[in-house]
Design brief:
α8 packs antiparallel against α11. Strands 1-2-5 form a three-stranded antiparallel β-sheet. Among the domains are: 47 residues, Helicase, Ruva Protein, domain 3 (Orthogonal Bundle); 95 residues, Elongation factor Ts, dimerisation domain (Tetrahydropterin Synthase, Chain A). The chain is 49% helix and 21% strand. By secondary structure, it is α+β, with helices and mostly antiparallel strands. One of its GO terms (molecular function) is translation elongation factor activity.
Length: 308
C-alpha cells in the first residue's frame, strides 16, 4: 500500500513521534494507522529501556487541587536536562500527571504507574510515560507524589521558582474563608523558603534528638577539651533546643514578621477569624533533592540537545 504524506501527518499528530519514525511505522504495518501507533509504542518502550539508566535529576514539581479546596496532589517528574524541563510538551505531561495523582487511590509510585491513564484508559500511566520518553528523547521519571485530603479544613498549595519547589499545607479550621486560605498560603511560602522538617517539636522522633545531641556533644568536646562532662551537657542543651526549633514550622520565626513565631502568627489569625486555625501537616518537594547529579558543563548539555 502506498504511504501518503497525509497518512504520515495523521500518524504524527496522533502519536507525537518523528516524521521518519511515522513513515517507517506505516511501511511496517502496510498503512494501518492503528497498528502503526502500536508499532511506535513498542518502539518507544525499547527506546525508553535504553534511556532508563541515565540520571534524571532535573524536572518539575506540579500541583493539582480540587475545586472545593479539600484535596490536592503534589508530584515530581524528572528529566535529564533543564532544557527538557522547560519544554512545553514536558510541562503539559507533568500537569497531566498531577491531575492523575489527584484522582488516584495508589499508595506508591509503582502502583500509580500501573493504573489506567485517566485521559486514555486503554493505556497505563507507565505506557504514557514511555511514549513521552520516546518523543522527547530523554529518560523521564515519575519520582514521587503525595495526595492530601483535608477532613476538616482546607489544603493550599504553593509553587516556587517555576516548578522548582512545591508545597502543600493542610490547615484544620471550621470553615476555610479567604483569610484562612491566605494564612495557609503564607505558611506554604514559609515552608518553601525555610524547609522545616516537622510541624512541631512533638513530632520529632526521639532517635533524631538523640543523634543530634550526640553530634553536638562531640562538637562541644572537640571545641572545649578541658571542660568536664557536666559542663558540656549544660552547653549543648541550648544548642540542641535552638537547632530543633529551626526544623519545626510552628517554632520558626515567621518570615513576613520576624517578631512573631509561626505559632504566634496562627494565634493572631485565629483571633481575627474568630475560630481556631491550626496546621495538621505539610508536604514539600524540591526538584532533584537527594538525587546525585552527573556534572556536565553548559556547552556539553547544548551539544547533547543538538545531537552533536
Amino acid at each position: 500500500m502506498a504511504i501518503t504524506a497525509g497518512m504520515v501527518k495523521e500518524l504524527r499528530e496522533r502519536s507525537g513521534a518523528g516524521m521518519m519514525d511515522c513513515k517507517n511505522a506505516l511501511a511496517e504495518t502496510n498503512g494501518d494507522i492503528d497498528k502503526a501507533i502500536e508499532y511506535l509504542r513498542e518502539k518507544g518502550l525499547a527506546k525508553a529501556a535504553k534511556k532508563a539508566g541515565r540520571i534524571a535529576a532535573e524536572g518539575l514539581v506540579a500541583v493539582c487541587e480540587s475545586e472545593d479546596g479539600k484535596t490536592a496532589a503534589l508530584v515530581e517528574v524528572n528529566s535529564e536536562t533543564d532544557f527538557v524541563a522547560k519544554n512545553d510538551l514536558f510541562k503539559e505531561f507533568v500537569a497531566e500527571v498531577a491531575k492523575q495523582a489527584l484522582q488516584t487511590n495508589a499508595l506508591d509510585v509503582e502502583s500509580f504507574k500501573a493504573e489506567a491513564w485517566a485521559l486514555d484508559p486503554s493505556k497505563t500511566v507507565e505506557e504514557v510515560l514511555n511514549e513521552k520518553i520516546a518523543v522527547i528523547g530523554e529518560n523521564l521519571s515519575i519520582r514521587r507524589f503525595e495526595k492530601v485530603v483535608a477532613d476538616n479544613g482546607a489544603v493550599v498549595s504553593y509553587i516556587h521558582g517555576g516548578g522548582r519547589i512545591g508545597v502543600l499545607v493542610e490547615v484544620v479550621v471550621d470553615g476555610a474563608d479567604a483569610a484562612v486560605v491566605e494564612c495557609a498560603k503564607n505558611l506554604a511560602m514559609q515552608v518553601a523558603a525555610i524547609a522545616p522538617k516537622y510541624v512541631s517539636s512533638d513530632e520529632i522522633p526521639e532517635e533524631y534528638k538523640e543523634s543530634e545531641k550526640n553530634i553536638l556533644t562531640q562538637q562541644a568536646m572537640n571545641e572545649n577539651p578541658d571542660k568536664p562532662a557536666n559542663i558540656i551537657e549544660k552547653m549543648i542543651i541550648g544548642r540542641l533546643n535552638k537547632q530543633l526549633k529551626e526544623i519545626c514550622l510552628l517554632e520558626q520565626a515567621y518570615v513576613k514578621d520576624g517578631d512573631l513565631t509561626v505559632a504566634k502568627y496562627l494565634e493572631q489569625v485565629s483571633k481575627e477569624a474568630g475560630k481556631k486555625v491550626s496546621v495538621k501537616r505539610f508536604v514539600r518537594f524540591e526538584t532533584g533533592e537527594g538525587i546525585e547529579k552527573k556534572e556536565e558543563n553548559f556547552a556539553e548539555e547544548v551539544a547533547k540537545q543538538m545531537g552533536m
